[in-house]
Design brief:
heterodimer; A: 306 residues; mainly alpha; two-stranded parallel sheet; 79% helix; 1% strand; B: 101 residues; Arc Repressor Mutant, subunit A; 4 helices
Amino acid sequence: MTPPGHRLRRIAARVCDRTTMVTVIDPAIADLQHEAEMAQRSGRRRTRPSLGRYAAVWQVVGYGISRSLIRGAMTGFTAERALVRRTLLVAWVAGSAITVLLALLPLLLGPRPSAVASPGLLFLCLLPQAAALGIPIGLSCAVVFAMRARPLAIGLVASFCALALLASGLTVVILEWLVPDANQAFRTVASGTPVARGLGELGLTALARRSDAASILVLHARLSLAAATFTLAAPGLVVVRLFRRPWVAVVAWSVSVILYFACASTLAYQLGPRAPILAAWGPAFIFVAAATAVLVARPRSVQRRP
Amino acid sequence: MSPRRPSLSDKETVVLELLIRDGEMYGLELVSASDGALKRGTVYVTLGRMEEKGYVTARQEDAPLGAGGLPRRIYAPTPLGRELLRAWTTVSRRLAVRFAR
């Protein structure tokens, strides 16, 4: 029988640095195991630690993982400054290209708006909405590009998580303060007459105040879009692990991005009215869980740095 | 940049007081001796931080009780920790008297 906390320690050892393991996590698990051993020796019927004791060790492991990630991000930024800078540059170029493309597509392929509407103005109105999609796609594309043919060092992963957090923050700002007014301006300019605001023209705070299923779906769909850098980077990390050739990795990652958005829109349509939160976050959960399962199953892909 | 001034949080004070009073202790022993002042989920974090600051020193027990178990970590106060607790207690006592006036 494995001693209690054995599996928990294995999980922590994959992420935490050596100092955190030795000074914080191992002592907590050692004491837990000692308690169980003492209970067994004293002939008590219940020898496994209680849920509360496990919860305390989980708390320690949670702290250890977050501390290691923060330390890893700081050392990763310092040690891999050139790579992080290059990633930001690629993210900027890819994000801008995708934003422009997404803002142009409806104008080129969609129905022609009213004659008075200036195409330049309509393009400007579509930019915020396109940027909210372009930022997560661009950054996750840059992460895939940066991580090709590289081991998944924890410092780098933590650095990219920090960048993804920044991207999420920026996307939230755009979704809250730019997209609603830009969408409304687009509708007004395109139709040539004032139009009442719909759900797409409300900010996150305005949506949070409403309780109908449609509003909840739009709110959570936007929040999951803000978190999409993580969601899209997760399959990206798997792709660079599985495919050595860069172009194959890029194609595989692009397919996973298309699959993600297809899955998101299908779930929103099918499940949205009944379970809006599940419909909005379901695809993110499925993608991250699947990617984590592959990464955990191939532990050699993650290399810790002392 | 000026060197960081040593400081003691409430939990660190409790840990040092217990270690000075009772001698070397394990993390869980500290929790049970603290009468609820220290919690299982945070004591190791506090001890790890104190070890980094040089307030306590740690060594591993010689042989763990169970065959497959990890060796426990035993903590003891360092001279710096003792000195800091003494200074901290003196200062807080003096300040408490002043605030009471």
